[in-house]
Structure formats: C-alpha cells, structure tokens
C-alpha cells in the first residue's frame, strides 16, 4: 500500500495505547484534570472495575461551551503555550492528549459549567454533539464501555477485582498528594473511600493507617533548591512488598530508579534485604531541575542533576532514621 496519512480517529486510537493502558490510566488522567481545574471536592464512581464506567465529578473551574469541542482534540490544552511554559510546568497535565485518547476507545461525554456561565453544556464524543445540560458547577466526565471498539485491547483487561485494585491505587496516590481536596471513591454503588479535606497527617493516617504513623518518622530536610518532607517507616514497620511506597516529585507520583536506590541505601543497614520500607515522601524542586515530559503517563521523570538528588534524598532519610532513637539509631551505630 502507498504511504498515506492515517485518519484522526485511528491516530487517536493508536495514541490511546500509550496513555490508556487500563481503566486506572483513565482515572489517573481524569483525576489529574480535576486537580488542575482547582477542585476542592471530587467524587469518583466506578462500575465493574472501571471497565463499564468511570465517572468523575468535580467542582473546579469548568470548561466554557465554545472550548468543549477543543477539549476532545489532540494536542489541545489550556495549560501551556510555549516551550518556556513546558520547562516550568506546574500543572499535572500539559500534553493535551488524554481526553482525545480516552474518547477514541470508549463512549465518553463531558458535562461542564464554566465559572459564571448561566448553565452547563454537555458534549458527546461520538457522534460529536453539544447540548444544554443541568449541572450546578464544575465538570462531570463520564467514560463508559472502555475498549468497546478495540477488542484486541479489551482482551488484556484483567478481572474486575484486579482492575478496581489498580484504580484504587491511582485514587490513593492522588489522595495522598492532595489532602486539601475532599475525595470520595465508590465501586458498584458502594462507597469504598471517603476522605474529608484536612491535614497531610490526617490524610496519611486515613490511607496508611495508625500503625504506619506510629512507627514512622517525620522527614523534613532542605538544601539549596531541594526540599523533601513526609513520613518514612522505622524498621519495625517494614513490609514484605512495596505496596506502601509513595514518592512524589513536585506533587506528581513517580517511580524513579535513582530515588528508589537512594532510599534503599538509606535503609541498607537497618532493614533486611527481603523487607521493604513504607514511606510517603514529597520532593520539591525548581521545575526547571526536572523533566516530566519523558513518558506519556508521566510516571517517569528525569532530573537535571541526578547525583545531587540522590545524595540529598539519601542523606535526608539517613539522618532522620539515625536520629530516631532506639532501634534505628543504634542499628546505624550513630
Ligand atoms: P491536558 O490535561 O494535558 O491539558 P487533557 O486532554 O487531559 O489535556 O484535557 C484537555 C483540556 O480540557 C485541559 O487542558 C483543560 O482545559 C480541559 N479540562 C479537562 N478536564 C477538565 C476539568 N475536569 N475541569 C476543567 N477543565 C478540564
Ligand atoms: Mg489532562
């Protein structure tokens, strides 16, 4: 066949392969949009592990009627306008491709009422249709029947329980980063998490439990433009899996080899190889010092000065664990 341009719809379905791996990836994108919109109350409803339906309602700034069709276009965003913006991006999103990708592999609608608008509007992705709607404020994104039109992808979905567990992980990651936002998660009509807005500590307690906080040290260190804060477990609270490890860079949950290594090293003398520490740590640095545009789902980042970050995280944790008295302190011999 001769070289030819692909139709938009197919381009979006191909792109969806990168952004929308499973229901949890949809939830991540939609939740991050709600955060970027300045929401204070967010309600998440899932059906059948998110495969049948993901519905997220927020009370954020909303989308004006004439921008609703654009929200569904690829490379359309309200968050950056230049390379300069990209290099110091402060929002979770900026690629302008999530909604287009999700719309290409599901039945999606957006209902939204922009601040100051007389009423809400609803747009259906396919067929594209804009109509007046009822909504007091904010935005409701409704994603139904994920992969209904891409059977090859649908085959890779796991059981309802597994897909829900992935969605729950995403929900917890966002919830830990944003204690200032009230969040609720329901699955098949039953509330599974209800989190009022509150302090960082209260949010950590709600999600990781009293046991974790009782056996954790509060971490707080600053050096130059780097700051890390949060909680890290003492050896008494180690786990057999990595299920309680949360690391954020400028509010974004990331999985980073360098950081994981620095943390491992800090625990090396006090924790057995088969045990894993639990932690919720927030690294803050000048946005210029980190590239978040490495991966479509943005779970990987690249540090400009990775050595400095490694040393900083290592020393901050090492010091905290060493000065924590009893067990940890003596085990470190300090
Ligand atoms: P990105 O987040 O990278 O900009 P998306 O495809 O996720 O791209 O969203 C496209 C645009 O739609 C956003 O830039 C934003 O203007 C708008 N948008 C999406 N979700 C919301 C929301 N919940 N509230 C307000 N605006 C939203
Ligand atoms: Mg987005």
TrEMBL record:
The protein's gene is named mutL
- What's the protein called, per UniProt? DNA mismatch repair protein MutL
List the molecular function annotations (GO) for this entry.
ATP binding; ATP hydrolysis activity; ATP-dependent DNA damage sensor activity; endonuclease activity; mismatched DNA binding
A GO term from the CC aspect? mismatch repair complex
Q: Which domain of life is it from?
A: Bacteria
Q: What is the lineage of its organism?
A: Bacteria, Pseudomonadati, Pseudomonadota, Betaproteobacteria, Rhodocyclales
Q: Which terms are listed as keywords in the entry?
A: DNA damage, DNA repair, Endonuclease, Hydrolase, Nuclease
- Signal sequence, renumbered to the chain: none
The DNA mismatch repair protein S5 domain covers 204-322
The family line of this record is: Belongs to the DNA mismatch repair MutL/HexB family.
Question: Is Secreted there in the keyword field?
Answer: no
- Keyword RNA-binding listed? The answer is no
Q: What does this protein do?
A: This protein is involved in the repair of mismatches in DNA. It is required for dam-dependent methyl-directed DNA mismatch repair. May act as a 'molecular matchmaker', a protein that promotes the formation of a stable complex between two or more DNA-binding proteins in an ATP-dependent manner without itself being part of a final effector complex.
- Protein's GO biological process: mismatch repair
Species of the source: Zoogloea dura
């Amino acid at each position: 066949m001769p070289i030819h341009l692909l139709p938009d719809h197919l381009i979006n379905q191909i792109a969806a392969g990168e952004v929308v791996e499973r229901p949890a990836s949809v939830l991540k994108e939609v939740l991050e949009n709600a955060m970027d919109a300045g929401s204070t109350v967010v309600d998440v409803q899932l059906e059948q592990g998110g495969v049948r339906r993901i519905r997220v309602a927020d009370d954020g700034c909303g989308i004006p009627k004439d921008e609703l069709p654009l929200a569904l276009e690829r490379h359309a965003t309200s968050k950056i306008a230049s390379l300069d913006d990209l290099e110091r991006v402060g929002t979770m999103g900026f690629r302008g491709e999530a909604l287009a990708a999700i719309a290409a592999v599901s039945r999606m609608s957006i209902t939204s009422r922009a601040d100051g608008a007389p009423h809400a509007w609803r747009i259906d992705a396919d067929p594209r249709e804009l109509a007046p709607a009822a909504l007091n404020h904010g935005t409701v994104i409704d994603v139904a029947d994920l992969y209904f039109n891409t059977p090859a992808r649908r085959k890779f979905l796991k059981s309802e329980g597994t897909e829900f567990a992935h969605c729950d992980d995403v929900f917890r990651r966002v919830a830990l980063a944003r204690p200032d936002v009230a969040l609720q998660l329901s699955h098949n009509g039953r509330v599974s998490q209800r989190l009022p807005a509150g302090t960082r500590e209260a949010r950590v307690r709600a999600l990781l439990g009293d046991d974790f906080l009782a056996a954790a040290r509060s971490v707080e260190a600053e050096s130059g433009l780097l700051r890390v804060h949060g909680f890290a477990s003492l050896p008494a609270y180690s786990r057999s899996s990595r299920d309680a490890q949360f690391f954020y860079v400028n509010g974004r949950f990331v999985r980073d080899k360098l950081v994981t290594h620095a943390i491992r090293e800090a625990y090396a003398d006090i924790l057995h190889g088969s045990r894993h520490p639990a932690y919720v740590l927030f690294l803050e640095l000048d946005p210029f010092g980190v590239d978040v545009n490495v991966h479509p789902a943005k779970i990987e980042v690249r540090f400009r000065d990775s050595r400095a970050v490694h040393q900083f995280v290592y020393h901050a944790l090492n010091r905290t664990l060493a000065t924590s008295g009893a067990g940890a302190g003596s085990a470190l011999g300090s």
